[in-house]
Task: structure prediction
Amino acid sequence: MSVKAVSGSVSPKNTPLWAFHGDKDGTVGASGTINPINNILACPAPLEDISMVIYPGVGHNSWRRTYDLSAGHDIYHWLLNFRNEDAITIP
Result:
């Protein structure tokens, strides 16, 4: 599972999550992403900002389509939408 979460020392319930996986991944089956994400979504108070993309016909390198933007998912813009208000600033 290729997951990009904006996190730090915060509760996971407040952590945005966007998961990516190829449905032809022979190393880790797509269920390795689908099942955990569906379990999170089934929680009584699921995250509001949780998404999953399963790339059809893609193997274990789903990250490449995500980070080079060729699949049309702007991960960089998405990441810049979040801020960890609890982040520790090191002087």
